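Hello everyone,

My group is preparing for a crystallization screen and wants a predicted model to guide construct design. The compound we'll soak is zinc ion. Before spending weeks at the bench, it would help to have a computed complex in hand. I've included the protein sequence and the ligand's SMILES below. Output in structure-token form would be ideal because that's what our pipeline reads.
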Amino acid sequence: MNVTFESAFVKALQKHASIKKLVKKKIDMIIASPLTTGEPLKGNFRGFYSCPVKRNFIIIYLYCEACRKKRDDAIVKCSDCEKMPGSTIKFVLLGPHDGTDGI
Ligand SMILES: [Zn+2]
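Reply:
Good plan to model first. Here are the tokens for the complex, ready for your pipeline.
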């Protein structure tokens, strides 16, 4: 599995250092099984996957094999998708959400 971390994700992880361990555990779970650990998002976030870390706190990631299958790479900001191997997971964002923005 090829795994990449966007700078926004790394920054958020530094900001929320208190839950680093929890996040790491989730990252390992996502890498082991990207399609069943998270849930596909809808609407503006179509193509992205989310996985809860704790209540109202989620990891957003892309799995390029899924991008291509659904041709979501045309919609989502998976910029260099075609250059990546299919088995690529990109960790995009990490943060709280209130459930009102469709995530
Ligand atoms: Zn992709």
